[in-house]
Design goal:
It is a single chain. By secondary structure, the chain is of the alpha/beta class. The chain folds into two domains: 173 residues, 3-Deoxy-D-manno-octulosonic-acid transferase, N-terminal domain (Rossmann fold), CATH 3.40.50; 173 residues, 3-Layer(aba) Sandwich (Rossmann fold), CATH 3.40.50.2000. The chain contains 16 helices and 13 strands. The protein has an eight-stranded mixed sheet with strand order 1-4-3-2-5-6-7-8. The radius of gyration is 27 Å and the shape is globular. The chain starts with 18 loop residues before the first helix and ends with a helix.
């Protein structure tokens, strides 16, 4: 016989709620949730001054009668706006031959793009709305400039060809992803990118790769920085950001940045131009933020002392700085390869935060054609800088690397890109029989208001 502990009592189990009680609880919960949503919207609009986000802009009715064979899909917020911004002049050129529109999912990004380009920009807040836009404008080719997660919502649309073009050419590990298999075609710059895909992907159809060079580099850029006096050398230090994870972290800023900047500033008759990746400015990594502010402070102090003025054109287009540059110091990123293409006549110093030369040369072949700054050589940065500015011994090797990465003369990439899009649009028409198009697949609506609020939509 079990003895009940003193002071305790047996409590009967609570009876399960009956159907009437469950209905009352459900109704009460629904009212509270609805009221909470209304309060949230009231606070956002009245107290925080955040404008309401429309479901569509323009309204679907306004899109009737407008067909755009080329759609550029961009679902990101303005913090990643640089990814599509670099394509805008190229797309404007395409639009002279084939109508182009940009379709967005972020209201803040929509407003940003409408200030940046004359190309039409259509906003769809929800997945159902996105499918509605596509059904009306009837895209033949949908172009993607990144591997954002919401790309897969656009890929639901079955009546278009889907083409990935990325937003740069570099040897970063993020340049090759299994996501490439989701697209009908993947546009790459040259043989280096083809080899990169072959070494990284398993069971991939390499016929999907379309070699078009770098159309963005065919454009003329107004120099945003005056050239220094003839006897003054200009060194552009352009570090990348720290990436989404350690595998994608190629920045030199936290390890070598301050030392690089100090060496350039202290070198006689040398001008430092410091232009970090846009996402360095919003970095929450304390070492990145400290190095960034430290370099800016060094520039301020050096300029206050008089003499050679150093520059930090943070908002400038990086490409607009190349013509005024005598030597580039950069990390594994598109900046180094863009400079290689446009200024193969000028030296490049490439950093390696992992200090693994064999791995670097395997993953980034450009490293075989330039001097490398890593843990073993950063102490000699001044001497390496002097050597490259006084006698450029790597010019021939850089020329071969340029051919390997790109392979086209300037001006040819844009023409190839336009011919490619035209041929894909024609291929789509052959594959889709007009008048027998099945209804597009839609899905659950998604509310992005919280994302917009965090960015001051």
């Amino acid at each position: 016989m079990t003895t009940q502990p003193a002071g305790s009592e047996t409590r009967p189990k609570a009876a399960a709620p009956g159907p009437d009680l469950r209905r009352i609880r459900h109704s009460t919960g629904t009212v509270i949730m609805a009221g909470g949503a209304k309060v949230k919207k009231w606070v956002r609009r009245r107290l925080l001054g955040i404008e309401p986000v429309p479901l569509h802009s323009p309204e679907l009715e306004e899109l009737e009668g407008h067909e755009y064979p080329i759609v550029v899909y961009f679902a990101e917020t303005p913090v990643r706006g640089y990814q599509v911004r670099q394509w805008l002049p190229v797309l404007q050129g395409v639009a002279d031959e084939l109508p182009v529109t940009i379709v967005t999912r972020s209201w803040a990004m929509t407003k940003f793009l409408r200030q940046e380009t004359d190309l039409p920009v259509a906003f769809a807040k929800t997945l159902n709305g996105l499918m509605g836009v596509y059904e009306i404008i009837d895209p033949k080719v949908v172009v993607y400039v990144n591997n954002g997660m919401k790309n897969f919502q656009s890929l639901i649309y079955r009546q278009a060809m889907h083409v990935h073009v990325n937003h740069g050419e570099s040897d970063k590990i993020s340049m090759v992803s299994n996501q490439a298999k989701a697209y009908d075609y993947v546009v790459v710059a040259g043989q280096a990118a083809i080899d990169r895909h072959k070494s990284a992907l398993v069971h991939f159809d390499f016929d999907k790769l379309a070699t078009c060079g770098r159309p963005q580099l065919d454009l003329d850029f107004d120099a945003s920085l005056e050239r220094a006096d003839a006897e003054v050398g200009t060194v552009l230090y352009a570090p990348t950001w720290s990436g989404e994870n350690d595998a994608n972290n190629y920045t030199s800023l936290d390890l070598y940045g301050v030392q690089i900047a100090r060496s350039v500033i202290e070198r006689p008759k040398t001008r430092l131009v410091y232009k970090p990746h846009p996402r360095v400015l919003s970095s929450t990594d304390p070492d990145i933020a400290s190095a960034h502010e430290g370099i800016l402070e060094m520039i301020r102090q050096a300029n206050a002392r008089g003499g050679q003025l150093h520059e930090a054109p943070i908002e400038s287009d990086i490409l607009s700085l190349f013509d005024s540059t005598d030597l580039l110091v950069t990390d594994i990123s598109s900046v180094g390869l863009d400079f290689l293409y446009l200024r193969a006549d000028a030296p490049i110093l490439l950093t390696d935060r992992r200090s693994d030369r064999a791995r670097l040369e395997d993953e980034a072949p450009i490293a075989r054609s330039v001097d490398v700054i890593d843990e073993s050589s950063v102490g000699d940065f001044g001497a390496i800088l002097d050597s490259n500015l006084s006698e450029d011994l790597r010019a021939g090797s850089r020329g071969s690397a340029r051919d390997y990465y790109f392979g086209f003369d300037r001006g040819e990439s844009s023409a190839r890109f336009l011919r490619f899009l035209t041929s894909v649009a024609e291929q789509r028409d052959e594959l889709v029989q007009v008048g027998s198009r099945p209804e597009a697949q839609a899905g659950e609506a998604i509310d992005d208001e919280d994302d917009e609020a965090s960015l001051g939509a």
